[in-house]
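Example 3.2
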Amino acid sequence: MKLTFLICFLSVTTKGQVAKPASGTLYANIAHMDSVLFNAFNTRALDTLKVLFSKDIEFYHDSGGLTDYKQNMDAFEETFRSERKLRRELVAGSLEVSPINGYGAVATGIHRFYATEKGKKEQLSSEAKFLMLWRLWDGKWKTTRIISFGHQEYLNRPGKP
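Structure, written as tokens:
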């Protein structure tokens, strides 16, 4: 119920007008945080991810369900130990940022994940939409809620190599 309200609230202001996307400094800050977060993912920097994820993170994934901080850190650790390397790339021009007064910002966009199997070339693995809540806490940005949905898988599909 709270999540549904939040998503609806983010779409409309209290006057019933469509909320205006952020520009300037807020957009630049969140675009930077997105790149820092996913550079940590791409380079397997678990310690950086531990700092960027709020301890009360809620990560909603359309196929994986709801996970918390510990579950996410455990999953990152397992993924990073694997010989299969994953890389995330933000789809150019897809990032939108809107302020949340007194809290931080919401970022939405589309990202793609690429996989490199041992001895093989990198291939597009999946694409999905995302929504991330970023909270500005004591001058530091942390992600507190993530929703990843609309996944389209490209590897291991019938007729695909």
